[in-house]
Here is the input.
Amino acid sequence: MLRLAAGQARHSVGRLAAAGLAVALAAGFLLAGLMTGTLVESGAREVLRTRLGGADVVATTFDASFTRENLEAVRATDGVAAADPSTSVAYRVSTDDGEEYVSVATVPTDPGLLPRPVRSGSLPAADDEAAVSASTAESLGVSVGDTVTLTVPSFGADDVGVSVTVTGVTADLPDVYGWGRSSVTLTEDAYFSLGPTAAGDGGMSDLSSGAGSGWHGGPGSILVRLADGADAAGVIDDLQANVGPTAAYLTSDEYIAEKLTEFTGNEDALTIFAVAFGTVALVVAGLVIGNTFQVLIAQRTRHLALLRCVGATTGQIRRSVLLEAVVLGLVASAAGVLLGYGVLAATLGLWTDAATSIGVELPTRISPSPLAVLVPIVAGTAVCTVAALAPAHLASRVPPLAAMRPVTPPSGRTTSRGRKAWAIALMVVGLALVGGGVLAATALGSRGDAGGDVMVGILVVQIVGSAVLAGSLMLGLVFVVPRVARWIGAAVQLALPGRFRATVRLGTANSVRNPHRTSATAMALVIGITLVTVVTTAVSTVRASLDTFLGTTYGADVQVESAGTTDDGQATALDPAVADAVRSVDGVLAVGGVVQVFVEIDDRDGVVYGTSVAAPSPEALATLEDRDLPELRDDEIVLPPSFAGSSPGWDSGGTAVVSPADPFEEPGEPDQVDGRELSVVLAPVAAPMISTASARDLVPGAGESSLWVDIADTADPAEVTEAIEDAIAAVVDGDQPYVLGNAVERAGVDEAIDTVMYVILGLITISVVIALVGVTNTLSLSVIERRREIAMLRAVGMTRAGIRGSLLLEGVLITVVGALIGAVTGVGLGWAASYTLLAVGDAATLAVPWAGLGITLAVAVVAGALAAVIPTRAALRVPPVAALGSE
Here is the structure.
């Protein structure tokens, strides 16, 4: 059977090539997913070891920091050759030209503990000296001999700045997970003296106390180098006895392993994520392989029957087909592993740049683990074998007498009622699980009970429901695809002139001639398109929901708020030059001033609420033209709907007493003399609003302390916001007004959403490409199967253009039907997923990604046409007379 399988595979190389390509792509994708975590972990391990220098043991504490006495106790422990403090607390280094936040290290007592070599100059020897890292020196423009100010951020106290002279420049620290590259090296005495007690004279405090004065209280960890021959376990026991049991003492390997576990959680999730999509790609490849072998078995009917005539058993026939599938899986998977490794190696520089931008360093070389190589090969081979089981069973059932009959193209198998019943049952169960998850999330969210574990459980249920729906599609597409294809074909016939209708009818009939094969091919596309649509729908819904949320959080695209306050706590007015500067910025459509006053709102029933209320000018209200707002009357106050839940009196039609207040004092009962009774109107506003006259009646002389800015829809929010900040800085000295708002928040969130979407779509693209390979393969095999039929059509007068058009339409129908079914399924699942994640029904604004769906459909049409190119050339290359000859 080995010789038979080899011979069959050798004679079917061309037909198996597309299926092998699908497996290779999936295996390479799976390798890349498995290597993702390995790359990140290797880079992080290397960086952590470098940052530890030559430390053998690391002492860490989280409840407090080590004191200098703790450090000396560590040094006095038997077996300790050297010990130095280590900290990740951010200090500020500044010059007249700028500032930078850095970590601080001390001059090591053992050169082996210094992970940053000196590039120029020397390490500090006096308490008013420091060495800075290369990146710090470059960004601040300092060199040896210059003076910088080192400031310790002190919460609740004035920041303390001390002047130090730069004595040397050290190499940068390797970055890992945002710890930073920049550092400053001080003497140990200088380090322990820094802090709020380090004084107002600008110099170092008295060092005789030896205490870890300063808010940091000392280092968070101590790096320990052991003496030659010292036992790490014994030294750790002594450290626990001498220094204290509240600290953790780990060997360097244990410390690195702990940090990797802490840091690489996201990378583990990324690996699982990538492997999951690699698995989807393998499933899609399995569908392509199953189709390929079914057609190959049909083409080999006479050959298999002759083998039966000369004594081959059904078991031998079955094993020969399975062996062919195993060989295909091994060869294609191995090629895919090599392909994946080559792509990773070729693009390592791009991956390194991307990882460095988020604080992760990758190794300069790729060393794939045995697991990363074996898993794709085993998985690819297993998928090929499983996909060939049904065709192998069909091959074993070929009777010997079939050798005496003429070879006829396989006809589409009939579909059973049982299959339809199972498809409907699975669909009902899947919809119940997915829909039930949505209802549960909405109910829990409305009660505020949507905790993290609960939501994870609901999402798991919905994922199971989605898998059940996928099973329903696999069973039910055979009923749906032919019908939808006929509908689309009929619509195309009506839209085209009469001379093209025969070609359309032929292409439509050919696309549904074998429903099982067409449905299996379409299913591969449905999987990929569904995943793409789920992502784009979820992103569109999140964006729409974000717009709704930000619209009720901020009043305008951009708000400029005064940074100053008066003696009674009210905001100071903005300089008119600020408004003029903002108006001059490109992309700004309108600017309006707003009087903002801090008040207390009383419902006369014991509920008193302190808040800032806005009194927008007509120009400011014009920036909210897309919001349905009531007219601001002098006897009314407009409240957000959330206020109605705090007091029945604050519902529409109720009344509220509004009085001026100091934001720095506890809310109390408003002064009824100064207060005004206003009628309540509820509206979708970000904060309470009153008329300008009411605001100035409450706080006489109140000026416009805020600006509402409307920016053009075509403008980049981030660029416009930055330009507004620059324009304000040019006209304002001292404290700068705050710039915030819808566009500011949206710019940051949009960037994060886009990054996630592009990563996911990039992963899914592989599955779509494999599915399109399957379409090409199906059309190619269909052409081989219908060689005589195509030749007959040409013999009776059908032109080459007609043959080409019918095959093109056949490919387009398969891809368009798959795209439509995938789009409908994806929109539904995308809504369910995003609705569940948002957890609160009225917080979710469902959206349809019309642009994305249009692009998907257009790509499906083009892809279907391209998939038909190779089969069409094959069909037209054979002369009709040769094709009509007996095989």
Notes: The first helix runs from residue 2 to 11. Residues 628 and 779 are 55 Å apart (CA to CA). The two ends are 24 Å apart (CA to CA).
